[in-house]
Amino acid sequence: MPKSRSKRATLASLAEELNVSRTTVSNAYNRPDQLSEELRMRVLETAKRLGYPGPDPVARSLRTRKAGAIGLLLTEELAFAVRDPAAAQFLSGLAEACGAQESGLTLIPASEVGDPSRAANVVHQASVDGFVIYSVAEEDPYLEAVVARNMPMVVVDQPADLEGIPTVSVDDYAAMKTLADHIFDLGHTRVAILSIRLNPVHHNGPVSAEDACNARMHVQATRISAVLDSAAGHGIDADDVVIFESFENNYSSGGCAAAEVLKSHPETTALLCTSDVLAMGAMQYAHDHGISVPEELTITGFDGIQEAIERKFTTVVQPSERKGLRAGELLFASEHGPVESERLECCFQVGETSAPPRA
């Protein structure tokens, strides 16, 4: 005959064993400051002996109406959050903010082409107390579903200007224009922009200046606009600036984009990339094909990820980890009243991948 399982310990049976109230047992887990250290340890040690796992988190959430977690909405597959260096830095900062509040973090991925019904289902099933929206396109169905839940939320980077919703961002235009001015001041007149996705529709290839500047992913559109304005200020027509879009932000995309641009526009002397990852992919292509950087080709990035810093790229360093930290802190602070948007500072770094164009 199989051995019968012992009866599962409960909060009530633990309280009875200790001859204390159920509130005392609950406080040992949820409000330890309400008990002496001696009593709390006696409760926890007895719980361990009896096999009591602690208060049921579902029951607790029903009672407190708090899920004990915040949701991070990103319109990428889950792997992006840990594979992309800038996103990983951001996630680290956000996790730090959650840890300080003893809160969990739920990642909510969105599909490449948003299905409104699926979006609503995914978002509404998320058991969270609020949302951080990380670089999502305007009119994205997942974004609309989050807004419809009417919960505390903070936007990071984009979309901008959502009424009543605080944002954490950087001045992408000013940062990119500083970098572009540096390149044109060096004497470059034949440049190309390698950009990560401009719209939530799969596309790899050339893009017109008009389409790029009106893209739905406005962070990338803003960076491109800054380069074009800088070009105009140096007497270079926008139509003479090549723009190439890569849907994925990875090394392979950077290499492929560099190959396409340099084959179709061999007169190009500078590649201005809207991410360090694309820049490093372009650098690998140049190395593999015997193109000397920066003597024959200037390559610049944006983000300031660790690898780009170590390899002395000319780039814009943005505080990705602090973005995540401040986004989380603002979200938790918003539970107690309105919070203000924040714009963090970037730093332009002149490295060893930019130089005057070849003669």
Automatic annotation (TrEMBL):
Coiled coil regions in record: none
Keyword DNA-binding: yes
UniProt xrefs under PROSITE patterns: HTH_LACI_2
One Pfam family per UniProt: Peripla_BP_1
Origin superkingdom: Bacteria
Domain HTH lacI-type: 9-64
UniProt KW keywords: DNA-binding, Transcription, Transcription regulation
SUPFAM superfamilies for the chain: lambda repressor-like DNA-binding domains, Periplasmic binding protein-like I
GO molecular function, one term: DNA-binding transcription factor activity
InterPro entries assigned to the protein according to its UniProt record, in alphabetical order: HTH_LacI, Lambda_DNA-bd_dom_sf, Peripla_BP/Lac1_sug-bd_dom, Peripla_BP_I
Name of the protein: HTH-type transcriptional repressor CytR
Species annotation: Lawsonella clevelandensis
